[in-house]
Specification:
single chain; binds S-adenosyl-L-homocysteine; binds iron/sulfur cluster
Length: about 375
């Protein structure tokens, strides 16, 4: 059996090399060739002994994901659709900005959480991606873009786990992938520039704090449990009080001293002034000790099956002002790559649903969301 080396973090490459009877430092060389230089052919790895290269050819490979399509937006955003087999495809988006390059990575083919406003959620769930499939998105994007720019300079400075899937429901594959993103012998990204976004898998937030603390974004979307239950079904398992408790505990280990709360602005559903006031009360807590947080308001990216509408700009601005006036740092997310459907929540890929999510979503669409008073 041949091992895809993209599946291994440095400790695992070291263990792999030891099994081959090689010194541990060879592992670092190999890992650097793969991630820093983008090499996939062992013959390129000129400072490894020929005997080791021959051994590796017999038992290992470095395999990216086949590209099904690539779209480049007028604003420079690039979206790739990758084939992950079995009729499933996942998407990855590169967003260039003046001072950074952000890659938005997928963690699952589909998603089982089934949020009402999310196009991935409406697709249902097929399977978890492997560590190698998560890392392959970064490996491919970084080295392809470097090649196009004709430079050895780093292109991707930030990673956000905000593509398809719930990263904390694929925890065992996620953590080694994060380690490779952070490792100085690989991509060397700062912990503050790698963000895991979650709909609120409370026990895994606690584990991430211990195993690999990186920046955390929590998809909040509602100030109260009744509304959040209908938008983010996972809320029934981990309601808001538990989620906020996990956020506070996370901050003791986090590389940043705040949590980012994402809030998708849905017309007439969660975007009214009273929702903003409830949000302020929620983060202030009963003891009046505020959860250190920032809010990122995301204009909803509509898709027909959702039956939902984007909030008006006026509603978004009024909501932002109420939060800011209460002393909460609030930003409104710019929509990027709109012309190539690369915006948040539009990453649908193509997923063979292996669950009943598709059916459940169809039923959900017939239930009205709590009316605005
Ligand atoms: N599963 C994780 C990460 C992937 S979703 C999570 O839910 O956090 C990344 C972000 O996109 C989340 O904040 C999600 O709520 C948001 N999102 C999903 N669908 C969207 C849509 N149609 N419009 C705007 N944002 C959306
Ligand atoms: Fe899954 Fe996140 Fe989409 Fe919810 S918003 S369905 S958790 S990908």
């Amino acid at each position: 059996m041949s091992t895809n080396l993209l599946d291994l973090d440095l400790a695992a490459v070291a263990a792999f090399c030891e099994q081959l009877g090689e010194k541990r430092f060879r592992a670092t060389q190999l890992y650097r060739w793969i991630h820093q230089r983008g090499a996939s052919d062992f013959d390129q790895m000129s400072d490894l002994a020929k005997s080791l290269r021959e051994k590796l050819k017999g038992c290992a490979h470095v395999s990216a994901l086949p590209v099904l399509s690539e779209h480049v937006s007028s604003d420079g955003t690039v979206k790739w659709l990758f084939d992950v087999g079995g009729g499933n495809a996942v998407e990855t988006v590169f967003i260039p900005e003046e001072d950074r390059g952000t890659l938005c990575i997928s963690s699952q083919a589909g998603c089982a959480v089934g949020c009402r406003f999310c196009s991935t959620g409406h697709q249902g769930f097929s399977r978890n991606l492997t560590t190698g499939e998560i890392v392959a998105q970064l490996w491919f994007a970084e080295h392809t873009l470097r090649g196009r720019r004709g430079s050895d300079e780093r292109v991707i400075s930030n990673v956000v786990m905000m593509g398809m899937g719930e990263p904390l429901q694929n925890y065992s594959a996620l953590v080694p992938a994060l380690r490779t993103m952070l490792d100085d012998h690989a991509y060397g990204l700062s912990r503050r520039r790698v963000t895991v976004s979650t709909s609120g898998v409370v026990p895994m937030i606690d584990r991430l704090a211990q195993d690999c603390p990186v920046a955390l974004a929590v998809s909040l979307h509602a100030p109260g449990n009744a509304l959040r239950d209908t938008l983010v079904p996972l809320n029934r398992k981990y309601p808001l009080a538990e989620l906020l408790g996990a956020c506070e505990r996370y901050l003791e280990h986090a590389p940043r001293d705040f949590i980012t709360f994402e809030y998708c602005m849905l017309d007439g559903v969660n975007d009214q002034p009273e929702h903003a006031r409830e949000i302020i009360a929620l983060v202030n807590g009963s003891a009046g000790t505020r959860v250190p947080c920032k809010f990122n308001l995301i204009p909803f990216n509509p898709f027909p099956a959702s039956g939902l509408r984007r909030s008006s700009n006026a509603a978004v601005m009024a909501f932002a002002k109420l939060l800011s006036d209460a002393g909460i740092v609030t930003t409104v997310r710019k929509t990027r790559g709109d012309d190539i459907d690369a915006a948040c929540g539009q990453l649908a890929g193509d997923v063979k649903d292996r669950t009943k999510v598709g059916e459940r979503m169809a039923k959900l669409r017939t239930i009205p969301i709590q009316p605005v008073p």
